[in-house]
C-alpha cells in the first residue's frame, strides 16, 4: 500500500512534537499576570495599611475619631495599645488603637 505524496510532504514539513520552546515566552503570561495583580491589588493595599499605621501612631488627646464599630468620640487618653474615647459627657470607652478607622476634623462632633 503506498501513501499519497501530499501526505508525505505534510508529514515532513510539520515540526517535531514536543520541541522545547523559549521558556521566557512560556512564562510571559504568568509574569504579566503577577505584575498586574501587584499593581492593582497588592500595592494599593500596602499603601492603605501604611497610611492607617501612620494615622494610629499620630493619635493624641483631643482628636475626634470614629471606630470600626461606628462609635464617634473624642480621644481622652492615649496608651500603648489602647485609647480612651469619650462618646458622650462622662461616658468613656476603652478601645484598641487598631479599631480607629478615621480621624475627623476638629469640631465635627459638635455639628453632628
In short:
It contains 3 helices and 5 strands, in the order H-H-E-E-E-E-E-H. With 112 residues, the chain is an alpha+beta fold.
Structure description:
By secondary structure, the chain is α+β, with helices and mostly antiparallel strands. It has two domains: 22-58; 60-112, SH3 type barrels, CATH 2.30.30. Helix content is 43%, strand content 26%. It has helices at residues 5-13, 23-57, 108-111, and strands at 64-67, 72-78, 82-88, 91-96, 100-104. The protein has a five-stranded antiparallel beta sheet. Strand 3 (82-88) and strand 4 form a beta hairpin. The protein is rod-shaped and about 100 Å long. The protein starts with a helix and ends with a helix.
Please provide the ordered H/E string of secondary-structure elements: HHEEEEEH
**Poorly predicted spans:** none
The biggest sheet, with number of strands, parallel, antiparallel or mixed sense and barrel status, is:
5 strands, antiparallel
CATH class of the largest domain: Mainly Beta
Strand order of the largest sheet: 4-3-2-1-5
Number of strands: 5
Rg (C-alpha, Å)? 31 Å
Average of per-residue pLDDT values? 86
Report the helical percentage.
40-55%
- Beta-strand percentage range: 25-35%
- Could you say what the CATH architecture of the largest domain is? Roll
CA distance, first residue to last residue? 95 Å
Pairing-aware structural class of the strands and helices? Answer: alpha+beta
Number of continuous helical runs = 3
Q: How is the CATH topology of the largest domain named?
A: SH3 type barrels
Shape: rod-shaped
Number of domains: 2
Keywords: Cell membrane, Membrane, Protein transport, Translocation, Transmembrane, Transmembrane helix, Transport
Transmembrane segments: 26-43
GO biological process, one term: protein transport
Organism: Fulvimonas soli
Amino acid at each position: 500500500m503506498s501513501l499519497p505524496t501530499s501526505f508525505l510532504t505534510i508529514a515532513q514539513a510539520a515540526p517535531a512534537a514536543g520541541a522545547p520552546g523559549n521558556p521566557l515566552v512560556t512564562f510571559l503570561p504568568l509574569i504579566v499576570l503577577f505584575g498586574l495583580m501587584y499593581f492593582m491589588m497588592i500595592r494599593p493595599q500596602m499603601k492603605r495599611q501604611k497610611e492607617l499605621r501612620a494615622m494610629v501612631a499620630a493619635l493624641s488627646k483631643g482628636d475626634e475619631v470614629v471606630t470600626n464599630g461606628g462609635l464617634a468620640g473624642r480621644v481622652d487618653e492615649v496608651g500603648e495599645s489602647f485609647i480612651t474615647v469619650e462618646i458622650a459627657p462622662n461616658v468613656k470607652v476603652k478601645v484598641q488603637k487598631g479599631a480607629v478607622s478615621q480621624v475627623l476634623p476638629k469640631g465635627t462632633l459638635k455639628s453632628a
